[in-house]
Amino acid sequence: MPGKRARRHFSQLSEFKRGLIIEMKTADWSTCRVAGRVDRSECAVRDCWETWTREGTHAQKTGSGATRKTTRREDRRIVRQALVDPTVTHSTI
Predict the structure, then answer these.
(1) What's the rounded Cα separation, in Å, for the pair 46 and 54?
(2) 41-92, pLDDT tens digit by residue?
(3) What's the rounded Cα separation, in Å, for the pair 47 and 71?
(4) Which of 17, 28, 71, 82 is deepest in the core (most CB within 10 A)?
(5) Is the pTM higher than 0.90?
(6) How far apart are CA 19 and CA 25, in angstroms?
(7) Whether 88 contacts 82, CB under 8 Å
(8) Helix/strand/coil (H/E/C) assignment for every residue in the chain
């Protein structure tokens, strides 16, 4: 099923699975064997192992997305204005 593979590809590794990967790789399992056991790609296993060897941790980093330019209150106001008058442009809002 190609849809299942696509969903699995983009889902995050759980902390439990990251721990399993580290334990199996520490026990000298091959990357291919570990990937088959945890049902993840070899690339995901390799990235997890490299992070462990480089940083000594398997915890996920916090998101580093862009900082907010507007508050949640301002966002609600913008949406409300757009709903009241749908013909208004985004630059005038």
Answers:
(1) 12
(2) 899 899 888 888 888 776 666 666 788 888 999 999 988 988 898 888 878 8
(3) 35
(4) 17
(5) no
(6) 10
(7) yes
(8) CHHHHHHHHHCCCCHHHHHHHHHHHHCCCCHHHHHHHHCCCHHHHHHHHHHHHHHCCCCCCCCCCCCCCCCHHHHHHHHHHHHHCCCCCCCCC
